[in-house]
Amino acid sequence: MRKKCLLANWKMLGDTQQISTLVEQLIVGISSGAPNSEVVLFPPAPYLRLVAEAIKATSIALGAQTVAEFAPGAYTGEVAAEMLIDVGCRYVLVGHSERRTLFAENDAKISGKFSRAMKLGLIPVLCIGETLKEWQAEETFAVLTRQLTAVFAEANDLKDFIIAYEPVWAIGTGKVASPEHVQSVHRFIRAILTDVFHLEAQKIPIVYGGSVKAQNFAALLAMEDIDGGLIGGASWQAAEFIEMSKMCLI
Ligand code: 13P
Question: With contact defined as beta carbons under 8 Å apart, do 67 and 77 qualify?
Fold first, then answer.
């Protein structure tokens, strides 16, 4: 059975007070020790250590929102995978659409980040998804194929990662994709994973992100190939996020 993953992307938001309060609420509300579910918090980089300390005796895991594709060295402003591991991260988001569009991260750069994370033992969460224009032009499957194959070109013996399908038109817009649409896309992604990783593809979690809330999450999770959620806005609401974490217990 694939594990269910609930991932909180806090983006570039929050301060010490807000993040400490939210983490304390989540620790109280999220049941610990469920073997088949994983809750991961992705705070902004300056708060990684604070969150790591707070969750160290819990089953909640820590992730970073991006990583450099380089080994440590003269790269002012960048953060190396080694440093993320050093402060307690187990996961890292790679290729979020905001990184792709606002920071010009192309497939080659994202592939470098993915490989670097895997090499160092960080579990990458590869974010993929089509824009509104691509969706309307019925290019979704072509875009996803390009985004996936760019990363797997050099990495076909690697298996410990998560895919997050986030249609750009659903992020922060309140327009959640229907469970049937997401399932059909996830099935397509699983077919690509199967071509590369064969039977192992069955173990790779594929989560959905884009305007997910407690109220629409159960219907998404009920689909065969939807293995969890990557949550933005609703992950700032402790009660919402705790409710979603309970839906992931299997
Ligand atoms: P929202 O849940 O706010 O739509 O954000 C989704 C997202 O970008 C998570 O990475």
Answer: no
Q: To 5 degrees, how large is the angle CA 80–CA 22–CA 3?
A: 65
Name the DSSP letter for residue 248: T
Instruction: Read off the tokens for 199.
Output: 């039977």
Tokens of residue 179, six digits: 């469970």
Among 38, 96, 98, 186, the one annotated catalytic = 96
Pocket test for ligand 1, best of 128, 208, 212, 240 (most atoms within 8 A of CB): 212
List the chain domain ranges.
4-248
- Report pLDDT digits (tens) over 102-128: 999 999 999 999 999 999 999 999 999
Place of tokens 């080659």: 108
CATH of domain 4-248: 3.20.20.70
